[in-house]
Amino acid sequence: MSGDDAEDVAGGVFTRFFTRHYDEVRRYALRRLGPDAADDVASETFSVAWRRFDRVPRDEPLPWLYGVARNIVRARFREMRRHGAMSTPFPRDDHREPGSPDPTGAVAERDSALRALSRLGETDRELIMLLAWEGLEVREAARVLGCTTATARVRLYRARRRIERLLAPPPPDGVPRPAASPRPPARTALKENQ
């Protein structure tokens, strides 16, 4: 096989890879930056994939692609913040795909959930979004975030607890919220066990 033939074969493999995963990567960017930037982020992601195609895991390429897209989105967030163009981690407008229904009753619930999500730290927020919006498993999301599965599980547990607290209805006037049980300092716990 000549060099040109090998290049054609590689190009065909990449074209099939691109066709299979482009829409998922675009939706990832759409949910984070909106329609104005989604195509650009997807294009940049596949440009990186083309240059590093030998490093893309063939068995599960989506977490790798999301990791690249995440880095591109983060760079765009930094740029927008630098120019004062964005104050929240989510675009203001509703950026659903055309034809997607959005029942009126779900709007308030969605708004509350997005507000709670925006109050999480960047990594915890991204973990929740990878699981809920992108449909990844915890181990796949851990790969996107560059951490172990165990670390992702701990972050997920803590993020869920925080979201539950943020979404809980406020207590009636005059009724204090239950305080979290205090944990003894590490030294005290060690001395008690000796």
From TrEMBL:
<feature type="domain" description="RNA polymerase sigma-70 region 2">
    <location>
        <begin position="18"/>
        <end position="82"/>
    </location>
</feature>
<protein>
    <submittedName>
        <fullName>RNA polymerase sigma-70 factor, ECF subfamily</fullName>
    </submittedName>
</protein>
<comment type="similarity">
    <text>Belongs to the sigma-70 factor family. ECF subfamily.</text>
</comment>
<feature type="domain" description="RNA polymerase sigma factor 70 region 4 type 2">
    <location>
        <begin position="112"/>
        <end position="163"/>
    </location>
</feature>
<dbReference type="InterPro" id="IPR036388">
    <property type="entry name" value="WH-like_DNA-bd_sf"/>
</dbReference>
<feature type="compositionally biased region" description="Pro residues">
    <location>
        <begin position="168"/>
        <end position="185"/>
    </location>
</feature>
<feature type="region of interest" description="Disordered">
    <location>
        <begin position="165"/>
        <end position="194"/>
    </location>
</feature>
<keyword id="KW-0805">Transcription regulation</keyword>
<keyword id="KW-0804">Transcription</keyword>
<dbReference type="GO" id="GO:0003677">
    <property type="term" value="F:DNA binding"/>
</dbReference>
<dbReference type="Pfam" id="PF08281">
    <property type="entry name" value="Sigma70_r4_2"/>
</dbReference>
<dbReference type="InterPro" id="IPR013325">
    <property type="entry name" value="RNA_pol_sigma_r2"/>
</dbReference>
<dbReference type="GO" id="GO:0006352">
    <property type="term" value="P:DNA-templated transcription initiation"/>
</dbReference>
<dbReference type="InterPro" id="IPR013324">
    <property type="entry name" value="RNA_pol_sigma_r3/r4-like"/>
</dbReference>
<feature type="region of interest" description="Disordered">
    <location>
        <begin position="84"/>
        <end position="110"/>
    </location>
</feature>
<dbReference type="Pfam" id="PF04542">
    <property type="entry name" value="Sigma70_r2"/>
</dbReference>
<dbReference type="InterPro" id="IPR007627">
    <property type="entry name" value="RNA_pol_sigma70_r2"/>
</dbReference>
<dbReference type="InterPro" id="IPR014284">
    <property type="entry name" value="RNA_pol_sigma-70_dom"/>
</dbReference>
<dbReference type="InterPro" id="IPR013249">
    <property type="entry name" value="RNA_pol_sigma70_r4_t2"/>
</dbReference>
<keyword id="KW-0731">Sigma factor</keyword>
<dbReference type="InterPro" id="IPR039425">
    <property type="entry name" value="RNA_pol_sigma-70-like"/>
</dbReference>
<dbReference type="GO" id="GO:0016987">
    <property type="term" value="F:sigma factor activity"/>
</dbReference>
